[in-house]
Structures are given as structure tokens and as C-alpha cells.
Design goal:
Two copies of one chain form a homodimer.
Chain A lengths: L2 H28 L7 H10 L6 H8 L3 H13 L3 E5 L7 E5 L1 H40 L10
The structure holds a DNA duplex (30 and 30 nucleotides).
Protein name (chains A, B): MarR family winged helix-turn-helix transcriptional regulator
Pfam families (chains A, B): MarR_2 (PF12802)
Chain lengths: 148, 148
DNA sequence: CCATATGGTCAAGCAGCTTGACTATCTCGA
DNA sequence: TCGAGATAGTCAAGCTGCTTGACCATATGG
């Protein structure tokens, strides 16, 4: 495989990723969740199961814990999450989603499903499943990184 | 297809895109091109064929022309591009890559090829071609957007 | 040939991140 | 058990890359 092919694949991947992020964010805003940015969505997915600490979030997002702390302050102020005392560590706080935070997460899922539906119109449902399977196999562990 | 599947696909796509961007940038830096960020790469691909104006770049990157102008100032100062008088419009300037800019672009292609090679180890060459084909069919036109 | 549109830059401001410093609490070995 | 170092979180200041607003030079069209 030539370098130019690798570059074309990379460009397509990054274009699709940018468009996906943009459309999910627009869909979330259109559903009435204001003042929320893509980075918040990545935070929500980490908070979703059982909550997380500020440091957990910082690692997940690949930023300093100060930056994560500011982000938490913002989503708490906007009503998407709340700070609770940590059950086993008095230094830490457990950040958990509020009902509004859960609703916002569901809105993001709906918006994502809409975008994927469009892909399905082009690739077919089998094509989309194949795409998901391939991406799942090459997806890295470690912190989420902005695509630029 | 359920929302959760769409979300899993989206998460995998964004994780792969973020990792790709990160590794290309690291590869470029490792090849000795300092002070260059992912956004510069997107600018280079627009400049590569025959140059472009500041406004062209702004549209391509989805930012204001002031931001594009600052970015051009930066890559000119760092020796990756130069401003030339525009052949048919005395207001405009044609921004073209220098030899160093071309070398940096080739380094980015090499780095991208390395990442794609790893995917090939997992998916096989056919799998990677299929992936590229699928992504190419759903890739949008319009400005490049950051993935968060 | 002048009114308006367009290309580019300067200047100021803002948002989101960083580094540095600090307190409170936990952990663990002497 | 207790004291030294590690860890959780926050406050403060600074930097960077973007924005908006203002401006000049040149192009375009009635």
C-alpha cells in the first residue's frame, strides 16, 4: 500500500470523524441541551456507568486534572452532573450524572444513530456493521485524544 | 441498529481518528519537523497542489480568514511556506509550500503509512482497503472540522 | 467612474488549556 | 503509631489559538 493511499484513507477517516462530532453536537443542541461541547460528551461517557473522580476524568480525556476540574465545575453549574462525597476516600469526590446529564447522553446517542443511519443508506446495514467491526478491532486503549 | 451500537461505532471511530492524528503528528516531529501541529498538516494538504490564498485556506479549515492569516504567518516564519504575489489578483497572495514544506508533507505521508500498516497487521490488506473504500463513500465535502 | 464587494492584516478580547502552589487526606514502613 | 511522602482537588496566573471589529488596498459592475 502506497503512502498516498494511506494518506487518502487517513483524510477520509478524519473527515468522517470531524463530521460525526459536528453532527452529534448539533443534534444535542437541537434537542435543547445548551452550552454543551463535544468534550462534555466524552466526559459523560466516562461518568455514565457509576460516576468517576476528577482524576479519572483527567486520565480519560488526556488533560491535566486542573482542566478536568474546570470542566466538572462547568457541567455541575449547568446541571448535568453533581459532586458527591466519595464512599471510600474523603479526599476525592465522586462526580455523577444528574437526570439531565442522562437525558443529554441519550440525546447524543440519538444524534449519533441518525448519522449512522445516513451511512447505512449508503453502505447498507451490513456495511456499517462491518465498518464498526473493523474500527473496533483497531481502536486504541488509553485516553481519548482530539482529532486535531 | 440500536442507539448503543451507533454510539459504540462512533466511539471507536473517534478513538481511531484521535490516535491517528496523534501518531502522524508524533511521526512528523520524530522526523525533525519542529513546531508543527496537526492543523498545519490540514493546511499543507490544501496548499500542496498549486498553492492557495489565505481565504481558500480559511474555508478549507473552517476558521476565519484572520485565523488562517495567523496560521500562514506562522508556517512562513517557520520556513514551510512562502507568500507570492497572486498572478491575477493584486489584493491576494498565493501561499505555496517551500521545499521544507513538501518534505514535511512527505514525512506526514510516511507516518500515516506506518499507522495504516499496523491496521493492516490486524485487518489484513484487504480489510484496510475495504475500510478505506467505505470511509471514502461516507466522507463529507466541505470544510475539515476538528474531531472535538 | 464611483459604489460596493472582496483579500488581507492589525488589534483586542475570550475560552480552554497549561504550569505552579497549596491544603486535606491517604498510605505505608520504621 | 506516627511521620514522610504520595495522592485528590482547587485556586491563581499565564499562554495559545481562536474570535470579532476595524481598517486599507484592490477588483468588479452598473
Amino acid at each position: 500500500m502506497h503512502n498516498s493511499e494511506a494518506m487518502a484513507l487517513s483524510a477520509a477517516l478524519l473527515a468522517v470523524a470531524g463530521e460525526l462530532t459536528h453532527r452529534i453536537n448539533e443534534g444535542v443542541l437541537a434537542r435543547g441541551f445548551e452550552g454543551v461541547r463535544p468534550a462534555h460528551g466524552f466526559a459523560f461517557t466516562r461518568l455514565a456507568p457509576d460516576g468517576a473522580t476528577v482524576t479519572d476524568l483527567a486520565v480519560h480525556l488526556g488533560v491535566t486534572k486542573q482542566a478536568a476540574s474546570q470542566l466538572v465545575e462547568e457541567i455541575v453549574r449547568k446541571g448535568y452532573a453533581e459532586r458527591r462525597p466519595h464512599p471510600v476516600d474523603a479526599r476525592a469526590k465522586l462526580i455523577v450524572l444528574t437526570e439531565r446529564g442522562w437525558a443529554c447522553t441519550r440525546a447524543a446517542e440519538e444524534a449519533a444513530a441518525e448519522v449512522v443511519q445516513r451511512w447505512s443508506d449508503v453502505l447498507g446495514e451490513g456495511g456499517v456493521r462491518a465498518l464498526g467491526g473493523q474500527l473496533g478491532r483497531i481502536a486504541p486503549y488509553g485516553p481519548i485524544r482530539p482529532a486535531w
